[in-house]
Amino acid sequence: MEYTYDLHLHSCLSPCGDEDMTPANLVNMAALLGLDIIALTDHNTAGNCRSAMEAGERAGVLVIPGMELCTAEEIHVICLFPTLEQAEAFSAEVYQNLPPIRNRPHIYGRQLRMDSADGILGEEPVLLVTASGISIDHVPQLVTRHGGLCYPAHIDRPSFSVLANFGVYPEHLQFPMAEISRHANPQTLRADHPELARMPFVRASDAHRLEDMMEPEDDRVMELPERTAAAVLHWLQTRKSSGNPAL
Ligand SMILES: [Zn+2]
Ligand SMILES: [Zn+2]
Question: Is the pTM of this model over 0.85?
Answer without folding.
Answer: yes
